């Protein structure tokens, strides 16, 4: 039986301050481009990092704020606000008299690190991460980054909320590792951010959005047709840990009989994606004729023409969709699913990206974050992000997790396992009954 979660509620906010770049930078602005704009109606992207054994909380907070002031000299966009020019084109604005990044200092002295790492789910994290259910569009009058540092009984919790219209996962972890570098004594960051967004796309798109009610938070789904007043079913969130050995087993199974026409061996990502898609489809007990969609938010830095550097700061991701009937998916061996996913990813080249951008620019649609498709499994984050390398001087985090924002039935976040090997943590949100079935699925869990 799936366990109910209890939120950590005895979190006391001690102080709210703001941090700006250490030196004056003057007035700067940068147009948001086609890759950024669809995320205006998503929620702030939340991450939680739990550290153990942090000595002297007050001193640590000051050290983190000093490092933040330094790193914001390079990543100054995060200290700015969203704005619109006279033509209604969204941009990031920075000026020295802006407030900067919000830093919340809090205490939950009775909570141990183990309590936050021993169970799965995100309900208990709610009071440890700022900007719950805040739309990115609100960056017009809110900080683009909020950080909550919470003192725990035996450690520190760092809750982060990034405005997702301003940056994607690659940029998020570039910023975090740079901040940590400076806190550990570096005098400069090793890889400065590439801030020229318009080099990836320079089409000016006007959007008539100015307040949260303009964003389709309750809009009809992109695929479900009629608008009906429905109440979302309760979701459960779990983290399934796949060891190196389990990953190798899944990959070997998927690559045992590659379908005709498939590219080189299926990657770890493609193999694990097929494994998760099949298991979630089984757990949902869909009818054979029901469609199911697999959605990947793919990094396009190396796909666009000309390619952009890894250090490109912004959103350079696009959703790639694969759809089939549940009966067809489950009637075939796993390599059928992997083949469809691989084909969709391979086809998403510079030409496909250009076509998608032109289509969107001719008729801009601001979707709700859960408009990823019917009976969807959607993958965000990546096991390639070196999230456990974010060491501010007192060791690696015990866990790195996503907050409660931007979660819906079928949302999946992938993280590397802490030990530095090839194991992967799969964080899944599912309707409660489906989750109970998934937790009992021995084939999914790769039990010997």
TrEMBL record:
Q: Name one Pfam family in it.
A: Transferase
Q: Which UniProt keywords apply?
A: Transferase
Organism domain of life = Eukaryota
Q: Which residues cross the membrane?
A: none
Name the UniProt record assigns to this protein = BAHD acyltransferase DCR
Protein species of origin:
Datura stramonium (Jimsonweed)
Its lineage reads: Eukaryota, Viridiplantae, Streptophyta, Embryophyta, Tracheophyta
């Amino acid at each position: 039986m799936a366990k109910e979660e209890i939120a950590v509620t005895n979190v006391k906010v001690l102080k709210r301050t703001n941090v700006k770049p250490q030196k004056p930078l003057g007035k700067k602005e940068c147009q948001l481009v086609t890759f950024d704009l669809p995320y205006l109606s998503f929620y702030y992207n939340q991450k939680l990092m739990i550290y153990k054994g942090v000595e002297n909380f007050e001193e640590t907070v000051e050290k983190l704020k000093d490092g933040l002031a330094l790193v914001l000299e390079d990543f100054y966009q995060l200290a700015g606000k969203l704005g619109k020019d006279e033509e209604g084109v969204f941009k990031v604005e920075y000026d020295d008299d802006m407030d900067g990044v919000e830093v919340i200092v809090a205490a939950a002295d009775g909570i141990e690190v183990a309590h936050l790492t021993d169970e799965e789910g995100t309900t208990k994290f709610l009071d440890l991460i700022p900007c719950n259910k805040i739309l990115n569009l609100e960056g017009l009058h809110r900080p683009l980054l909020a950080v909550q540092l919470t003192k725990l009984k035996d450690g520190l919790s760092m809750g982060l909320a990034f405005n997702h219209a301003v940056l994607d996962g690659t940029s998020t972890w570039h910023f975090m590792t740079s901040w940590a570098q400076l806190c550990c004594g570096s005098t400069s960051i090793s890889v400065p951010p590439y801030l020229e967004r318009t080099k990836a796309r320079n089409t000016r798109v006007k959007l008539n959005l100015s307040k949260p009610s303009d964003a389709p938070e309750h809009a009809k789904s992109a695929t479900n047709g009629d608008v009906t007043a429905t109440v979302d079913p309760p979701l459960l969130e779990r983290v399934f840990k796949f060891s190196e050995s389990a990953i190798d087993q899944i990959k070997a199974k998927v690559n045992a009989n590659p379908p005709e026409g498939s590219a080189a061996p299926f990657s770890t990502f493609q193999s694990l994606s097929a494994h998760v898609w099949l298991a979630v489809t089984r757990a949902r007990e869909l009818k054979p004729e029901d469609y199911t969609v697999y959605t990947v938010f793919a990094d396009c830095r190396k796909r666009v023409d000309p390619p952009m550097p890894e250090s490109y700061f912004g959103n350079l991701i696009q959703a790639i969709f694969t759809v089939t009937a549940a009966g067809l998916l489950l009637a075939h061996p796993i390599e059928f699913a992997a083949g469809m996913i691989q084909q969709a990813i391979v086809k998403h080249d510079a030409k496909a990206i250009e076509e998608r951008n032109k289509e969107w620019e001719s008729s801009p649609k601001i979707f709700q974050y859960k408009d990823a498709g019917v009976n969807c499994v959607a993958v965000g984050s990546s096991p390639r992000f070196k999230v456990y390398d974010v060491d501010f001087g007192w060791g690696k985090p015990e866990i790195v997790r996503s907050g409660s924002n931007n979660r819906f039935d079928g949302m999946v976040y992938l993280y590397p396992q802490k030990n530095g090997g090839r194991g992967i943590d799969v964080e899944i949100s599912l309707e409660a009954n489906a989750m109970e079935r998934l937790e009992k699925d021995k084939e999914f869990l790769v039990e010997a």
